[in-house]
Amino acid sequence: MKRFIILTSCMLLWGCSSGIYIKVPDEIATSSRETGYLAGSLGVTTEWPSTGEGIITTLSIRPTGKAETITLTNTQKKSDFESVTDKGQIFVAELPVGRYEINQVQFKGTNGRQTVRSKSNQNLAIYFDISEHQVTYIGQFLTSSLVANSQLWNTPYPTGFGVIRHSYQADRDRALMTERYPEIEVFSFYEANLDGYEANKLASKLLEK
Fold it and tell me: Is this model's pTM higher than 0.90 or not?
């Protein structure tokens, strides 16, 4: 068990160093000796006016049937990849084997005047599996700001409310991950299907209170 805890701590540090803060509750981290790896990337759209550069995004993930959640938050302090349209960071975390649910996404942005905190509906029912000695790649999550028209200037502007576009960039992300974390190169790399995923699920629906 000690070995697993040490590895989990390393993964938490790796998440921070790549611009993503990963929090794994002890109840989850110590629940099994059989472990695999969760991997993916979290970023933002940089195109105006849908730019998500001012939005902090948090994915909440939990083992099915459990209340405790794992959180992945992009700090945007450092980019692992960047293009003319987007930028972001990779993440890798060691987790117990089993079925997991992306159950909610939260956003912290600005509409130019005030900070806006919003979140999706709960219990999103987007599922994937972590298998032993395998890197489970769940894809790329890019945050964009929802756009509104200014009544004063009649021009579009980012509202600070977020929406996530999901896709797969396995070749790019796998190369970045194995370069940074060569220890995982010995494991099989699996591009997971997200059961229950629908594009409109990962969007602001409610203001946080």
Answer: no
